[in-house]
Amino acid sequence: MDHRRIEEQNVAELYVTGRLSPEDEETFESHLLECSECRESVGWADDLRTSIRAVAAEDAARASVQLGFLAWVSRRTRTARAGLLMAALLTVAALPAWLQADRSRLARELSVAKAEAERPAAPASAPAAPATVPAAPDTSELEKLAEENRLLAEQLRDSREQLAQVDEPQINTPIVSLGAVRGEDDTTVELGPSPVPILLSLELPQVEYDTYRVTLLDNRNKTVWQENGLEPTASETLTILFPSERLKAGTSYRFHLEGMEPGGRAVDVGYISFRAVKG
Amino acid sequence: MLAEVVTARSRGVEWSEETTPHGSIVRLHFPPRPEAPAMTSVGETSPADLVRRIRSGDPRAEEELIARFGEGLTFLLRRWTRGHSDAEDLYQETFRLGLEKVRRGEVRDPERLAGFLRSLARNLSIEHYRKAARRGSREEEIETAADVSNPDTGQLGQLLRKEKVNLVRRLLEELGSERDRQILFRFYIAEEDKESIRSDLGLTAPEFNLVLFRARRRYKDLYERHAQLGTPRE
User: Which of A11, A39, A175 should be substituted to probe chain B, the one whose Cβ sees the most B Cβ atoms within 10 Å?
Assistant: First the structure.
């Protein structure tokens, strides 16, 4: 593996985000065994990735609180709540990018449709186009997509306006990164005087399963919360926006992580501990 | 009234707290990242030659193998185990088993010695965690793990992470265009396919790669400058 290709193709970035093919990953890791320069590049790329994700998580949590979104979410069912919270995170963190992507896609489809419309009509006796030729996009479908795009843009604008109306900045929104690697003390989660969401980012150990079951246990081993079928991100983390009112100050908690095998059997993967304290 | 300054050092990270009439200011003095050593020389002894010497019973060749691949193996094991103390055991086990196999002539392609060691370490790591999961002892291992050398843990680690987050905010502000910000967000957060990002934004592969490359380099520059100045925490 030569350094020119590694630099030009951002192999370090692709590696830390899990985008290399298994073969390329194996080749690059074998190269890393001997190359300190590339190990350093991986270190920086990893650092940048972690920090950018933290920025997005902070912004998402802050926006969710300020919009009063959680008050509404807390009245939903557990499953709906998880979905809505993820949607909130994505909305705030990635919606601008997605809107842009959607806009580009629409523009492309519109130009195809225009080209089709401007093409002279085929003579009546011409043979039918083979089935493999793609049909021109349905204009009603395009209008529908454009309308959806417009609505999303409106929602984003409304959200930004609501955020702009908040006079006081929200400070110290609790964001806790929890992993199997710990220092001398348990990670503490500070609970404020009033209920707020806490953004918990769980780092999964290096055991790969398609889905996980996560159970939050208190110090008496009582289940506080459980969710099945959680799919990890490519970077093997699970992000959970958790309502602080479900935690008690002075209590130690553990997340029990289980990988789900295809047959439905749960395999113990690990525990991540933390302690809730009064903020 | 003079400001009172308290300086402390923990796990290699130095910080100070200055108490002023208007409140306290925490300054975190970033540890300089270790200078990258020069690239490992691979030209002196070919992997095949190293394998041949080990097979012939040359103890210095075994030492050479450990010196050559030890640092890289530690790096990979720490990534795979997320810095867990298991990495140390796996390191020992990989070299023990690896050397045994080399001595017995079980390395099929000696020129691919690095690939052989990497595969061995990877398999040992996976097997280790499978066994631990079956025994149900993972909890105990995690509970007793105390990686004091890792400054990214505990309250100080959280403070360090906050500083890095501030650096990234600055980096995002400095980016020349909204398009570049989009690339970073879509690549690192939405985890979109590289090709679809490129196609949506109408970028060539070199243009796309340049944005990622510059972002990493700028982040590194900001960190290193920050480490020198000890910029106060906001």
Answer: A39
Query: For residue B141, what pLDDT band results from cuts at 50, 70 and 90?
Result: very low
Helices B178-188 and B205-229: crossing angle in degrees, nearest 10, is: 90
Over the stretch A77-92, which tens digit does the pLDDT of each residue have? 555 555 555 555 555 5
Other C-beta atoms within 10 Å of B203: how many?
16
Are the beta carbons of A239 and A89 closer than 8 angstroms?
yes
| A contacts of B194 (beta carbons < 8 Å) | 14, 19
Three-state DSSP class for B18? strand
**According to the model, what pLDDT value does residue B35 have?**
43
pTM, whole model, 2 decimals?
0.52
- The answer to whether the CB of A234 falls within 8 A of the CB of A17 is yes
Core vs surface per residue A153-176: b (16+ CB within 10 A) or e = eeebeebeeeeeeeeeeeeebbbb
Torsion sign, CA atoms A39, A45, A49, A54? positive
Q: Which whole number is the average pLDDT over B12-21?
A: 57
* Interface contact B118, partner A, CB < 8 A: yes
Phi, psi dihedral angles at B7 (to 5 degrees): -115, 140
Query: Touching check for B219 and chain A: CB below 8 Å?
Result: yes
pLDDT (tens digit per residue) in A15-24: 998 889 899 9
pLDDT value at position B29?
A: 53
Name the residue in chain B with its Cα closest to that of A11: B209
Structure tokens at B150: 């890792």
Other C-beta atoms closer than 10 Å to the C-beta of B58 total 13
CA distance B201 to A266: 42
B77/B18 Cα distance (integer angstroms):
40
Q: Which pLDDT value is given to residue B14?
A: 56
C-alpha angle B175-B177-B182 in degrees, rounded to nearest 5: 90
Q: Does B2 touch chain A (CB under 8 A)?
A: no
What is residue A140's predicted lDDT score, i.e. its pLDDT? Answer: 62
The pairing of beta strand A175-178 with beta strand A197-203:
parallel
Q: Between chains, do B169 and A55 touch, taking CB under 8 Å as contact?
A: yes
Highest mean pLDDT pick, A105-119, A160-174, A191-205, B121-135: B121-135
Q: What Cα–Cα distance (Å) separates residue A106 from each residue in A101, A113, A133, B192?
A: 9, 10, 20, 18
Q: Do B36 and A207 touch (CB under 8 A)?
A: no
